[in-house]
């Protein structure tokens, strides 16, 4: 990847040999590696067996999970928040595992719709929940610092599975809890 970043710097018309840019291909490759480390993560290792029996079947919501991803069309960041809820069916998942799952999919080349769906499907599979809801609100730098250059619009995507899809009252409870903070 370093070589390719050096070529990009040249293509821009810059001098990769000038002092400030000498180590830039190395740094950029390292940064890009970090921003896409989700490809090299393993769901089993992330969850690490942290699934616990529980008779609680009320909604569990983790809201305001900060999210950094890269849009697959421009390789520019999109940044926002994810809200994830599920209705336990006999077992709950370790609290930290939800943001870890969000990150595993966010740290890849994505479009927001697919990211939302992948997180929802994954939480559903891992928890066997009666329902899963995911809402993501994000701002895309490709639509802010270039292209249409809209600084104040954000994109909201959602995925409702099981009871969240079937039952309007459950969905409403989720949305009002999300709006609450
Ligand atoms: N649906 C969706 N579109 C996205 C996402 N991220 C970026 N895009 C859009 O992907 C589209 C790519 O359109 P193209 O016309 O092929 O590319 P472009 O010429 O760079 O488009 P502009 O951004 O309009 O200048 C643009 O409309 C982007 O806004 C995303 O997460 N979801
Ligand atoms: Zn984009």
TrEMBL record:
Zn(2+) binds at residues 71, 74, 142. Keywords: GTP-binding, Hydrolase, Metal-binding, Nucleotide-binding, One-carbon metabolism, Zinc. GO terms for cellular component: cytoplasm. InterPro entries: GTP-CH-I_C/QueF, GTP-CH-I_N, GTP_CycHdrlase_I, GTP_CycHdrlase_I_CS, GTP_CycHdrlase_I_dom. Pathway: Cofactor biosynthesis; 7,8-dihydroneopterin triphosphate biosynthesis; 7,8-dihydroneopterin triphosphate from GTP: step 1/1. Belongs to the GTP cyclohydrolase I family. This is GTP cyclohydrolase 1. It comes from Solimonas aquatica. The lineage of its organism: Bacteria, Pseudomonadati, Pseudomonadota, Gammaproteobacteria, Nevskiales. The gene is folE.
């Amino acid at each position: 990847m370093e070589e390719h970043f050096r070529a990009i710097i040249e293509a821009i018309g810059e001098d990769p040999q000038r002092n400030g840019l000498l180590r830039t291909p190395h740094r950029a490759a390292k940064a890009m590696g970090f921003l896409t480390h989700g490809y090299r993560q393993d769901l089993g290792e992330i969850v690490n067996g942290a699934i616990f029996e529980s008779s609680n079947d009320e909604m569990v919501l983790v809201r305001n999970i900060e999210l950094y991803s890269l849009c697959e069309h421009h390789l520019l960041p999109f940044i926002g928040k994810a809200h994830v809820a599920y209705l336990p069916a006999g077992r709950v998942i370790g609290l930290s595992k939800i943001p870890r799952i969000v990150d595993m999919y966010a740290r890849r080349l994505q479009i927001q719709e697919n990211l939302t769906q992948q997180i929802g499907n994954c939480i559903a599979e891992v928890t066997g929940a009666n329902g899963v809801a995911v809402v993501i609100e994000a701002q895309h730098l490709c639509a802010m610092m270039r292209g249409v250059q809209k600084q104040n619009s954000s994109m909201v995507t959602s995925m409702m599975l099981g009871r969240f899809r079937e039952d309007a009252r459950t969905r409403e409870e989720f949305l009002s809890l999300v709006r609450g903070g």
